[in-house]
Design brief:
- By secondary structure, this protein is an alpha/beta fold.
- 35% of the residues lie in helices and 11% in strands.
- It is built from eight helices and seven strands; from the N terminus they run βαβαβαβαβααβααβ.
- A seven-stranded parallel beta sheet has the order 3-2-1-4-5-6-7, with helices on both faces.
- Helix 1 packs parallel to helix 2 and helix 4 runs parallel beside helix 6.
- It is globular, with a radius of gyration of 17 Å.
């Protein structure tokens, strides 16, 4: 049964009930722990990380906490994972807000931002990381409901989050979106998912030009195959999981804590001369940037 979080009380979703999946249910746990000491690169900042309960989102939230940020963690309904992430952030000394709900709903996105502003009075970093994918070998197998759901979660939510956040983003703020290697090289069984990732890259580049005069930077990260709950809980066909990530030049899937530093770099002043760009932690696959 769902449990009450800081900003929401929701029912379990019936759409693909195994997804996006619980990290607590994996036998092989992803490596999300930060790999180096913090240096205060986000001290005094407030960040929202969507999809922050597990995987890349958890690794990013905890790394941001280590670097001094207050962190709002948005997730769908994986309360067990979210509370683990919260505890990890609090051990780093961070203040944390949890928000459960569907980011495909603009009212929920507005409520999340409102809760952040009410608690902390500012918003400096928005990480749009939440996403879902549903493999289909034939395009005819993609239902209208699935197509709408994938776009709603993966790209509509980014519009809704930025629309809600925009009035509170000041000069020096940063938006970091999560696109994917599938945008660049394609994915024959992820037609709808890879299409949303193409939209996210175009959104990133266009939004960066829209906001640059106001001193707000917009960039993205395009991970390759990363070991998170998304894939073993239905994001990839079960029969293909034994070979997941082995087609990369490094011959293995990446870990969340190998991706989170890319989000940190783009969120902090280290990347002050970058906007409209995409970083590629993907195991060595060369793609057009």
């Amino acid at each position: 049964m769902p449990t009450e979080t800081d900003t929401a009380f929701i029912e379990e979703t019936s759409e693909e009930p195994k997804m996006p999946g619980h990290e607590t249910g994996l036998d092989r746990k992803p490596k999300w722990q930060p790999r180096y000491p913090g240096s205060g690169r986000l001290k005094g900042k407030v960040a929202i990380v969507t999809g922050g309960d597990s995987g890349i989102g958890r690794a990013t939230a905890v790394l941001f906490a280590r670097e001094g940020a207050k962190v709002a963690i948005a997730y769908l309904e994986e309360h067990d994972d979210a509370h683990i992430t919260r505890e990890a952030c609090e051990k780093e000394g961070a203040e944390v807000l949890l928000s459960a709900g569907d980011l495909g709903d603009p009212k929920h996105c507005q409520g999340l931002v409102d809760a952040v502003i009410e608690r902390w009075g500012q918003l400096d970093v928005l990480v749009n990381n939440a996403g879902e994918q549903h493999p289909d070998y034939e395009i005819e197998d993609i239902t209208a409901e699935q197509l709408q759901r994938t776009f709603q979660t993966n790209i509509f939510s980014m519009f809704y989050m930025v629309q809600a956040a925009r009035p509170h983003l000041k000069k020096g703020a940063a938006i970091v979106n999560c696109t994917s290697i599938t945008m660049y090289k394609g994915a024959p069984i992820l037609l709808d998912y890879s299409s949303t990732k193409g939209a996210i890259t175009a959104f990133t580049r266009s939004l960066s030009q829209n906001l640059v005069d106001d001193g707000i930077r917009v960039n993205a990260v395009a991970p390759g195959p990363i070991w998170t709950p998304l894939n073993p809980f239905g994001g990839q066909p079960e029969e293909e999981m034994d070979d997941f990530g082995k087609d990369t030049p490094m011959g293995r899937p990446g870990e969340p804590n190998e991706v989170a530093p890319a989000f940190l770099f783009l969120a902090c002043e280290d990347s002050s001369y970058m906007s409209g760009q995409v970083l590629h932690p993907n195991g060595g696959t060369v793609v057009n940037g």
